[in-house]
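Q: Could you predict the 3D structure of 1,4-alpha-glucan branching protein?
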Amino acid sequence: MAVIHRTTLEPTKLELLTGWLPTRPWYHGGLGEPKLGKAGGFRLDDPKGEVGIEFMVVRDGSGDAPVSYLVPLTYRAAPLDGAEAALVGTAEHGVLGRRWVYDACHDPVAVAELAALLEGRAEPQAQSVSHTPDREVSRALAGEGPLPAEFPAVEDGEEHTELTAADGTVLRVLRTLHPAQDGAPQAEPGAAGHVAGAWDAPDGTRAQGLMVLLLTPPPAP
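A: Sure. Here are the predicted C-alpha cells for 1,4-alpha-glucan branching protein:
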C-alpha cells in the first residue's frame, strides 16, 4: 500500500489545477481563474509501487454556484512516454523529488487499477492516511469480468471523459459530480457497473454520488 508522506509539494496540487482546469472542455467555471478547494477523493495502489494514483475531488467557487469536479491524477518519477498532452504539470515533492503529474485518464496504470476496482480486485484507499481502506467508496458490477485490460481511446466531453476499449467497453469518468438523491447512489439505466464515492458539499455536509460508470457494448446480433 502507498505511504502518504507528510511533506511539501511545490507548486501545490491546487496551484497546478488552477492553470490546467480552464483548458478542459468539461470545466464550467466563471470569469477569471478557478477558486479551488479540496473536497475529497480516494487513492488506488499501483501494484508495482511506482505510480501514485489519486481520484481527487476539487470544488470551484468561481462561478454563480460552487461546482465539484472529479480530477483523477497520477504522480510519476519520470515522464510518461506519449502522454505529453495529458501532463498537468511538474512539482517538487519534499521527499520524493520531482514528480510529473498527469490526467490519470491517460495513464494506463491508473486505468488498469480503476478496472480492477470495478471488478473488486483493487481496494480503494483513504486519500490522506497510509494503509487505510476508504469505506465511503463503493463499486458494483453486473455479471462477471474480466474487463478489458486497456482503454486506449480517451475523449473529453462537456460533462465526462470516456475511456474506450477495443471491444467497445467504456469507462465513463463523471467530471461534474452531483449528490445522489437521499444520499444513496444508484446505478444509471444501461450501466453495467459503477464506482461511487463521497466528498464535502459546500454547506459542510458529506455528499455521496456516482463517480464512474461502466458501459458495455450491446451483444452482437
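Q: Anything worth pointing out?
A: Residues 108-119 form the longest helix (12 residues).
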